[in-house]
Amino acid sequence: MHVPDGFIDAPTSVAAGGVALVGVAACLRGARRELDERTAPLAGLVAAFVFSVQMLNFPVGAGTSGHLMGGALAAVLIGPWTGALAVSVVLGVQALLFADGGLSALGINIILMALITVLVGYTSFRLLMRVMPRRITSVPLAAGIAAFVSVPVAAAAFVGFYAIGGTSDVSIGAVASAMIGVHVLIGVGEGVITALTVGSVLAVRPDLVYGARDLLPKQQLELRRSSPEASS
Amino acid sequence: MSERSESTMDTAATTEPTASGPSRRTQLFVLGGLLVAVVLAGIVSFYASSDPDGLSKVSEDKGFAQSEKDHRLGDSPLADYSTKDVDNDRLSGGMAGVIGVGVTFVVAGGLTLLVRRRGQSSEASDDPAAAEAHRP
What was the pLDDT predicted at A61? Predict the structure, then answer.
């Protein structure tokens, strides 16, 4: 869903750039508390992995494809703040090195694919974990469902941008139903990839999965009930 | 390498802010993960669907595709995930993918390292005013 230059007008893009900048700054701040012995070595890997999987467009129906966004995946693996940073780095590299995603649309793309997917994905993940059985096997399932949800929400957010600053005179309702419709399908792929990836990491190194921490035994001095403001 | 820390799940004692870096097991895990990413971006990506993605397709169907402007870096050496002057499609795309994995890993990993170092120094001083002064 990399937004190219030209779809959204300049004022909206600039404003989005400002919001994205504030968002990334907040992530830098939040990541300081999140990064520890386990998440820190993983952050670079998660970003590199999301980059590689974003190259793997899968078909969704006639003549359309989609790819992972990775916000929910990154948040579950390394924490929401660090996860949003990692995906932002991916988007920056893609725009600057691979001409994928417009330069003036970079702010929009960071908001849609890093900040919103993490916000929606991680919040959904936490809510799901609260109602699902407290088992390690719940983690990949919850992550997959959360990732699925995050994609149409990001698509809806694009429509929001388009309603504010779209450069063509087209029906917003038609864009909305088409965008959300196709991204529900893409979301299924996102969910499957996320669940499989989280499941694979859990199988090898469960201690490295941020979202599974409070399920692992034998942890002293760790937050048992993880609310974002547990420290301070 | 102390065998003792093996069985513990990183208690506070082992998360001492040191420059010793991640354990050997974790290093191996990261290396293995990178290998997977390299294979996906370098080889598997060749078989990815080349149909337009959801947004491009909607922009075509709903009639705003023409408002797209050419990318200002569209002539750069790795634009559109192909390596300039490499004619073999497989090689051209694969090289671009592997370079992308490497650059992303270094940038994200480096940023993390910087953030972590700063986080530790402001935690060490444990003074809200000092932490506040670190605000970007």
Answer: 85
